[in-house]
């Protein structure tokens, strides 16, 4: 198992309170974001501020409490990210990696870098997801986005399972640039993995918020007709739904929030039940392999 490099973001956030606002972005970039610099470079997101006004920190500020916004009222949240919290995060990561290793699927990276960023409960990308989420699509790098409270702290381990499922997948499966097929399959795999590890009660709100019995016909009809979309920009509205698409001036496609996640969850569940394939093995299969086995999904009511 590769070493797990935990970045104690709580200490970095608290240090911001000692700095002038003008110094904070540079400090945050140098002490936290630099550990993810390779990730941003792979994603072609500028690490340093640019004349165009877009960089990694600006992107993160759309979802998180910015270094400039962080204040003494956030200290209680940081107090929740104590030694036990970070120890539990490491244990949860190890549990995921061990589960894959038992199936013969070992990490291909030399190290995992992990941290938790402070989510802003006033920003839609957080409150629409009940104040927790994460990003784990670049091998070796994972962070969670969290507004610390009793509910989100309990679900930290399931968020870790979700993001590390992505991380392991893209060590074995070539990222295709963000096709709609890949996005819904990968999210479906991640949530079925969460369920396999921790049970249905730990499924994320991006699956449970939609009444599938009532909405599946609409969702399947719209998403199923657009599986040929081969780029992330066009695919995102179908994955996230209209509320998020509207925030970023994307096309509205008459889908509820996180429709693609919910659809992917039930699609992958159908695949697992039909093939008796384990979730770990399925995680390493291409989206097309999975879709080819469940063509009837798009025309069948799944309860």
TrEMBL record:
Molecular function terms from GO: peptidase activity
Assigned keywords, A-Z: Hydrolase, Protease
Protein name stated in the entry: Metallopeptidase
InterPro entries named in the record: DUF2268 (IPR018728)
Location of the DUF2268 domain: 85-291
GO process annotations (BP): proteolysis
